[in-house]
């Protein structure tokens, strides 16, 4: 009994805390994906690479001397602008086409390949370390967590709450939710839909950029980091329900726990496979995901 | 507006969307669907076949092997086209079957048997079962989910292969022997001879192409196309779309698996990247470049892209960027591919007085 308790305390609990932190950051990436799908019905396969660009932008800005705090503010804005450019130039012209779901998926896929290669040209294939703004370890009840990770958790949760507040408690959010249901009705009230779409992309991609900055001191940055994260983010969005805000958060926290706890007992690569099997299971039982779409209900 | 052959994979129709589907347009689409103009296609096909048949006389062994690689990529592209052009399913993970077949075939040649036919049998069986299971889940999930599931499946397989020591991990498997293939009593194909290898793959691909064309010209193909164009109405005609899509999916998987079956014999090794997104992506790019829904287009595209890459590769390392750029340009400006462009040019010329 003693053994079990100390096992839970010293092995399982730290792993769960770690998974909570990863889950919160994962939720940021998933939120952007799900918002963009909910409003535009565009699956942004370049989203993982925007997260990657966020990491590299942090690395570059730190090199230019903005400091970590400067990067934390600037990177989401920069990545948001990149996302806006993608929407303006690439996706907007395709939205009117009848086959927009397919063509935008293909387009963002192509963009994702290009971004990854651009990152390799500019920064090389090596892994770059990004310095955390503070070191140190916080301990509570004999469980020790690097202080920076707690900071990541705090910022991620704050961003999640802010997003919820924005969407469900403000006028902008009301417009977003209405657009998800019926864009032409929103347009007939005199609200320019292209700005709504632009805002969605800026905000969603900005969140991916934020996740990139936050996680870069933990995982370092490398060209394929976005690609690796994307599969996980899509599992999250599928389990939570494509286009669901609450679903993205809940599923991110849940799947991160599944992966974190499973990798205690099985090799990490099988833990990832397990997450994927959970996704398949949800697809079989509830093909539209666990939660309702933005704007519905 | 451009007439595209890329089917919509299930975006929810927007309420009050501007009407862009008059009966005339519908009819036009239905007539064009799948095969543009069979006669033109046949000419393109025959010319290509003639070029392919005499090609080894002029190309050195490097180019012959490159051509074999193009033909093998063509199998994956063909399978993408069957799914996208006929069933309206966008698969971003067709390399899963290419890689699966390649690994099975490599493992069997290394440890079990040298018999090509036995290996083929095992590959067909395993790929069949695997594609039935994945296909059943992916097709039930519909629309954009299909693309994501196929993408994810290939990614996971690639990761498993990457991290499993027993099958070589990230290094893959090397030193795969090249078998002799007994075709008829007294006639054995020696694949270590480049020319024999080339004509063997070419013949097989032509047979696969003709077979696919034949199958898709039957009622089965018509039902698939009907599902692609309007999957909500097909059930009212008494067809269950699920089974037709599933059969199409398994068929496509087997064709991609043929490429995988041969690949280890060409290169002598297999590695986790065979499952990876790069081959899946290339297959989609190649179909897009050639023209989706033509069956011939993907083969044309595959030859063009493979040789283009080889040329680019001698100048720059940046394959991905070039692939991505080609992708973007074709999606935005030439959605009906090179064959579609050729057709439009031909139509315009004929219309001129």
Task: Provide a descriptive summary of the structure in words.
The complex is a heterodimer of chains A (297) and B (353). Chain A has 297 residues and is mainly alpha-helical. In chain A, 78% of the residues lie in helices and 3% in strands. A two-stranded antiparallel ribbon of chain A has the order 1-2. The model of chain A has no long low-confidence stretch (mean pLDDT 85). Chain A has a single domain, classed as ABC transporter involved in vitamin B12 uptake, BtuC (Orthogonal Bundle), CATH 1.10.3470. Chain B is mainly alpha-helical and 353 residues long. Chain B has a single domain, classed as ABC transporter involved in vitamin B12 uptake, BtuC, CATH 1.10.3470. Chain B contains 13 helices and 4 strands. In chain B, the strands form 2 sheets. A two-stranded antiparallel ribbon of chain B has the order 1-4. Chain B has a two-stranded antiparallel sheet with strand order 2-3. In chain B, helix 2 packs antiparallel against helix 7, helix 3 packs antiparallel against helix 9 and helix 4 crosses helix 9. The longest helix of chain B has 27 residues. Classes of the chains: A mainly alpha (297), B mainly alpha (353). At the A-B interface, helix 3, helix 4, helix 7, helix 9 and helix 11 of A face helix 5, helix 6, helix 10 and helix 12 of B.
Average pLDDT number of chain B: 80
- The helix/strand class of chain B is mainly alpha
Can you count the helices of chain A?
11
Query: Can you name the CATH architecture of chain B?
Result: Orthogonal Bundle
Tell me the span between the first and last alpha carbons of chain B: 23 Å
**Rg over C-alpha atoms of chain B, rounded to the nearest angstrom:** 20 Å
Strand content of chain A: under 5%
Number of self-contained structural domains of chain A: 1
**What is the H/E order of chain B?**
HHHHHHEEEHHHEHHHH
Overall 3D shape of chain B: globular
Mean pLDDT score of chain A: 85
Count of distinct strands of chain A: 2
Spatial order of strands in the largest sheet of chain A: 1-2
CATH architecture of chain A: Orthogonal Bundle
The stretches of 5 or more residues of chain A where confidence is low (pLDDT under 50) are: none
Work out the oligomeric state of the chains in this entry. heterodimer
